[in-house]
Amino acid sequence: MAYAALLSLGQTTENIILDQDRYFISRNIKQQIRSIYQPFIFLKEFLEDFPEKANILDGQIRDLAYEAEHIIESFILVEAPSHWWNVLAAKSKLKWQIRKIRKEAKSITREVMIIKNNSTDAMQLGASSSAAGSLAKPAPIIKIDYMVGLHEDLLAIKSRLCGESPNLQVIPIVGMGGIGKTTLAKCVYDDPLTVQRFDIRVWVTVSQDYNADVVLSALLSSMEEFDKDRSEESNESSGEKVFKILKGRRYLLVMDDIWSTDAWDDVRIILPKDGNGSRVMLTTRETDVAAYADHLSGPHNMRFMDEAQSWNLLQRKVFAHRDCPPELEDVGKEIARICKGLPLTIVVVAGLLSTVSNNVASWRKIAQNVNSVTKGGQFENILSLSYTHLPHYLRPCFLYMGMFPEDCEVRVSKLIKLWVAEGFLRRLNRSKTLEEEAEVFLEDLVKRNLVLVTKRKCDGRIKSCSLHDLMRDLCIRKAHEEKFLVNFSSGLSVKGRKNQRRVSVITRSGLPYFQKIYGLTIHTILCFRGISVANKLEGFRLLRVLDAGDVYVQSLPDQLFDLFYLAYLAVYYRGRIPTAIWPISKLRNLETLSLHAKNNWRKFRLYLIRLPQEIWRMPRLRHLVFYGRLPNPVGITASSLENLQTLSIVSHTMCRKRILRMIPNLKKLEIDCSDGEIFLNSLVHLRQLEDLKLRSSVRIVFHQKDDFTFPKSLRKLTLSRVTLPWEDMTIVGSLPNLRVLKLTHWACRGSTWETSDGEFPKLEILVIEKSFLEDWITESSHFPMLKSIVLDGCWKLAEIPEDIGEIPTLELIEVKGKARTSLVESAQRILEKQQEWGNDALQVQVRRMAHR
Fold first, then answer.
1. DSSP string, 726-738
2. Which residue, among 238, 293, 299, has the nearest Cα to 270 in the 3D structure?
3. Strands 765-769, 740-744: parallel, antiparallel or unpaired by DSSP?
4. Helix residue ranges, H only, 591-708
5. pLDDT tens digits for range 114-170
6. Least buried of 65, 497, 791, 795, by fewest C-beta within 10 Å?
């Protein structure tokens, strides 16, 4: 992983040389540090220009870059206020180490020059023959029919799902990894006929690392909208609550990726048998598990695709709905045949083809590579090809996915913050922030079919992602081979634990191994599932990333604030965080700070966090996530947090003109309006703000229009229990860039909403949830760009205005929760009328609890 090492070295060097406030070192020392990095600039350019040729030197470059960075970071820690004789000894040692690094770098550079010269000659010889089609085409971002080759399976499962038997039936889907079990189950789950038939649908991923409490909690969480009794004082177990919710309803439960009969037994005992045609679908690789769950009808066995289906899937993935050029058909069919009917392999190879030129030579080269690694059915080697063809700047981003637990849905907001803190990102577009560039990188990994999208936001951006099991195995194996990370739950043998950079501790059994890790080179620690090492930080003085945000931390050790290089800190603290004594200003490199505190004695009630005033003296902060108030910025100059992009969840009392001017580049803001009189008319000073959420634990009321104003830059606005009069929504409607509007938990006051011409010029997504709205008066011209309407729990609304159907961009009307029959019928009338006019793009989905 040489490229990631060089990026990190470059970032460390640049920070030390340019930042006078954090690094108090002489000009002479800066020149020496610059001299260390100088030969690596050439090596970095070589990796970018000749990615395939660089593999043979990757390990040498990586180790030398890591060593150089370790030398620099260790020297800076000694140079910080210390005894003069220690500093003198460190300077002498630094000179000797610099000579050694430069000598080794020079040796590698000579080898690089030989490779580079040979490669350049070869390129010149072949230039004339490939000039006509040498430009690689971008991978298309188009929805693909993932059911190619699975139509018979779909019909078979739907037949069992909708059968006449009233008894609870189990439908196991069995097959090897990558054969399409989850894809099939998901398509059945989302099928309109399934949505209409079942009162409630629940999906839970079990995985090999099974935990009964986690699975039952996930089941309960996925049924949140049906949980009427959400009282934290309830003594009922998760299983009892699940049973009560399902009781009397026709339900469909999908248990994806189940590996043991114990997992089925733990869930089976809480499923009601009401004789109403409820169903359970299981996906598993284990035939014994399938037979145990359903010994009557037998499992549905997934088959390999035939050659025709394989070719159909391959060309659909590469060309979407366009035809394959005739000259590529023969070699394309050959590639499809080589994939031996395994859908995952076909999809991954299609991702490779989408990144090369559309000519026979390029495709023939891919065919040769695929053929060379598939002899003997080595499907893993085909997947490895997709990694080999990755640009160097994407490799660390992909390998980082191996830090997370199996079947984990990784929140993209968190993943991107981690990538930024690690220094993985290369600024390809200077007009974009690092976070925006990271989203481009992630979309690229998705287009290459290396990373799966599990959820998208309503605006189409990725909300969460994951890895297929086989792809995760590849990811972790490559990461271990390249000394990129150590994952202690992977089951792989991890030899030579010295000089590791990143550690993921996922299970309790991994903790003893972690404690034997050589800490001086560790830069990243991620903790999951009840394991935290946040109070075991002795010796980890070069730590950059500490994520204990998913587990409880009992205490915050003093050593935490000696982590000079720490850029990312996430803490989930049991009890009150002692912020008054935090020497937080010592963390000069901190970019992301995420704090959550809950009190164990009050049913995990959220604590209000009070940050120390020193938070205003941390100009590198990009993301600040906590629940509380910002301190009064006494004596602080304007724009002291000019790099801050995310701020949540803060009290509305901070929305004063003076404070907002100190965070001028904020993009995402979440405000708690629960206490006191509300005045939000200073928000207009946040001219870069794109995402605003106003929330409250109690219903509050704006009395005058002058109490609030919104910046024109807003693209997404969420109001929750912050009740504006419907007639004042004209202020929201006048926002010129608003794409997404969510009105949840009685966000607007009154019974009638009447819109006007010129409002909501760019609104695409409208969500109204739990509302007392009765009459909606509007015209199609009032929402000219609307794509989706979601009405959830609008139990008083009589109908959707018929004119809504005339909006040319409209794609979806969804009715959920309690709803009148007349509301559902109005949606159906709109659909029928549009279908009569030949508009087949519009969909209507109804998932409601009847209310007359």
1. GGGGHHHHT-TT-
2. 238
3. parallel
4. 657-660
5. 877 775 554 444 433 333 332 233 333 333 345 666 788 888 998 898 888 899 999
6. 497
Token pair in block for residue 255: 């248990």
The three-state secondary structure class of 185 is helix
Q: Give the model confidence (pLDDT) of 220-266 as tens digits.
A: 888 877 766 554 446 778 888 889 889 989 999 999 988 888 889 98
Q: Do 242 and 270 meet the contact criterion of CB atoms below 8 Å apart? A: yes
Taking the C-alpha atoms of residue 538 and residue 554, their distance in angstroms, rounded to an integer, is 16
CA gap 788, 793 in Å, rounded: 16
pLDDT at 210: 74
Give helix 469-481 / helix 343-353 axis angle, nearest 10°.
Answer: 60
For residues 832 and 658, give the distance between their C-alpha atoms in angstroms, rounded to a whole number: 55
Eight-class DSSP state of 637: P
**Cβ(233)–Cβ(603) below 8 Å:** yes
Backbone angles phi, psi at 718, to 5 degrees: -125, 125
DSSP state of 356: S
- The residues, ordered by sequence, that sit 6+ positions from 529 with a Cβ below 8 Å of its Cβ are 211, 214, 405, 506, 507, 550, 551
Task: Quickly list H helices, 27-83.
Answer: 27-49, 58-79
59: its two tokens: 């390990």
The amino acid that residue 368 corresponds to is Q
Using the predicted structure, report yes or no on whether residue 345 has a pLDDT greater than 80.
yes
Q: pLDDT per residue over 396-435, tens digit each? A: 999 999 999 888 899 999 999 999 999 888 766 778 889 9
Contacts of 240 (CB under 8 A, 6+ apart): 270
Tokens of 667: 């993009």
How does residue 647 score in pLDDT terms, banded at 50, 70 and 90? Answer: very high
Cis peptide before 173 (omega within 30 of 0): no
CA distance 406 to 423: 25
392 alpha carbon, distance to own chain's centre: 21
The count of other CB atoms within 10 Å of the CB of residue 110 is 8
* Structure token pair of residue 409: 């849905």
> What type of residue sits at position 684?
V
Candidates 176, 206, 205, 208; CA nearest to 491 is 208
Residue 9's contacts (CB-CB under 8 Å, 6 or more residues apart) are 37, 40, 65, 66, 68, 69, 72
Sign of CA pseudo-dihedral 443, 445, 446, 447:
positive
Q: How far apart are CA 789 and CA 597, in angstroms?
A: 36
Which residue type sits at 4?
A: A
Collapsing DSSP states into helix, strand and coil, what is residue 4?
helix
pLDDT recorded at residue 139: 32
- Residue 771 in contact with residue 748, Cβ under 8 Å? yes
The residue type at 251: Y
Residues comprising the chain, all counted: 852
For residue 466, count other CB atoms closer than 10 A to its CB. Answer: 20
- Sequence-ordered list of residues with C-beta below 8 angstroms from that of 656, at least 6 positions apart, any chain: 682
Mean local confidence (pLDDT), 783-805: 94
Task: Return the half-sphere exposure (C-beta side, CA atoms, 13 A cut-off) of residue 428.
Answer: 12
- Across 175-230, where does the E strand assignment appear? 200-205
Q: Confidence class of residue 605 from pLDDT cuts 50, 70 and 90?
A: very low
